[in-house]
Amino acid sequence: MSVSLPAAALSVTTPEGPAGVLARDRQGYVFTCSAGASAAVGVSLTMPVRLRPYERAGLHPVFQMNLPEGFLLERLRHRLAKATAADPLLLLSVLGGENAVGRLRVAMPLAPSSTGMGPQQTETLSSLLAHRGAEGLFDRLVDRYLLRSGLSGVQPKVLVPTLIETPAADRSGESVSPASKASVLTRDLIVKSGLGEFPGLAINEFICMTMAARAGIEVPEFHLSDDRRLFVMQRFDRRGDGQLIGFEDMAVLAGRDASDKYKGSYEMVARLVQAFCAAQHRVESLRRLFDIVALSCLVGNGDAHLKNFGVLYDGVSDEMAGSVRLAPAFDIVNTTCYLPEDSLALELAGGRSLFASRQSLLDFAPACLLTPRQARARIVRLIEAAHDVMFEFDELAAEVPGFRSTLQRRLELFGQTFRAPAAGSGRS
């Protein structure tokens, strides 16, 4: 696929209807809401419908959210003309269609909402998990589904449509044609690989995410392939029937460019949760935020940046205002087994030291409406869950160079700092 003409303007729609036009001029980027648009078609929690255009030197953060980074961007440079791959509006015109993250759909005016890929094929979860030779499989998936994968983050990943399997569904390991699947529902899965740069990354993420689930933190459905080279996670911005769910990461809510995702603090994230989450979800969202940050400190995750936290919501109208809540935890890995001197992605109590994060978590607790006693109880629960998971997957953890020993040291440090809460303190 090649694109020769620069995209000057894109139409933006939401499930509630046309939202407006995103354009570029000599000063930067301009988003203009559709004439007479209702509040329900607002494109972001930070960009309600108004008469005055939203002007910005760089692309608005809510649109940046669907631009690829790292591995995917490099692959797009090879697939598309280099000029195209460097043009944000053209990238959005390719990646911002039916498969974009969240509830926005972006396309060239009068153009069909298609990536030009032709009839869509699908995979099956069972074939993805059972396939031998995952590196070859991952390359094939990237080649086939690259132009529908508007995923941020530098880790190698691709968005793969999969058939929701029934007893009669194809389990041969081959992709399924549109004709053979008829009207059977499909879902999207995010397939990740560490490739050669980060050996054992799929196992790493599987174990860390299992710790989160075991501790009671909400997580998407996830799997590890049989050959332990692929981590597969269900996208969580869709309902079971395919209905779109709004998603915005914390970089969007903070008005930050994606390149500034390492700027800020976890206290700032807590303030954003306070500001944007609905009253009925606010306390639970803040406490879950504390758990995710604490688990990242516990496992040595130095990549919990602004784009790895977000909120979900059903819509932006006043009637939907009560739906905004913290999104499930995702992208939790131990980075210190690859980067021994790694630090926290954001500031915590004024510092970024993973070693000092044990005490910093107690200083962070009030931002999440927790007392020190409640925070200790929650951290103890995380430690217990992590110990259980490490015991259960000890042999699997040993397959990742440096992973098991790094996790064991961190668990010992946290265990020395946090003892079981006194009787009657509870685990609020």
Number of domains: 2
Mean pLDDT: 87
- Main-sheet strand order equals 4-3-2-1-5
Please identify the structural class as seen in this structure.
alpha+beta
The radius of gyration over CA amounts to 22 Å
The largest pleated sheet is described as:
5 strands, antiparallel
Please give the alpha-carbon distance between the first and last residues. Answer: 54 Å
- Which series of helices and strands comes N to C? EEEEHHHHEEHHEHEHEEEHHHEEHHHH
Task: Describe it.
The chain has two domains: 9-60, no CATH class; 123-164 and 185-421, no CATH class. Helix 8 packs across helix 13, helix 11 (279-299) packs antiparallel against helix 12 (357-364) and helix 13 (372-392) runs antiparallel to helix 15. Strand 9 (222-224) and strand 10 (231-234) form a beta hairpin. Residues 1-6, 112-119, 168-184 and 420-428 have low confidence and may be disordered. The relative contact order is 0.11. It has helices at 61-64, 70-79, 82-85, 88-95, 125-130, 134-145, 178-181, 201-214, 250-253, 266-276, 279-299, 357-364, 372-392, 394-397, 403-417; strands spanning 9-14, 17-25, 28-33, 54-56, 105-107, 123-124, 157-163, 186-192, 222-224, 231-234, 246-249, 310-313, 325-326. Helices cover 34% and strands 14% of the residues. The protein contains 15 helices and 13 strands. Strands 4-3-2-1-5 form a five-stranded antiparallel beta sheet, covered by helices on one side. By secondary structure, it is of the alpha+beta class. Keywords: Kinase, Transferase. It comes from Sphaerotilus hippei. This is Serine/threonine-protein kinase HipA. One of its GO terms (molecular function) is protein serine/threonine kinase activity. Residues 10-106 form the HipA N-terminal subdomain domain.
